[in-house]
Write a structure and sequence with these properties.
mainly alpha, globular
Amino acid sequence: MRERSATGAQDLSKSIKKHLNDLTRLTASLLGDEKLSAITSSSAVKADMHRFVIELEPVKLTILQNDDISLDQNEIFEILKNFLDG
């Protein structure tokens, strides 16, 4: 989506923000080793997620801070990164 947004596709910026917000909420629901270890995915999905995390790092501070989630942007990023590295 970022690639399409950079090339001028309209309304993608709003969509990217929504996905980052969704990411925050989903990541918060994955807290706890038992929840993370229960997740299985194909190598293709893990590869896509790994690419996403790499691309997310420089812009991680753009992730919305939700009032109902106690995680900050750096914690969210670290949880995702650790999940993929583990």
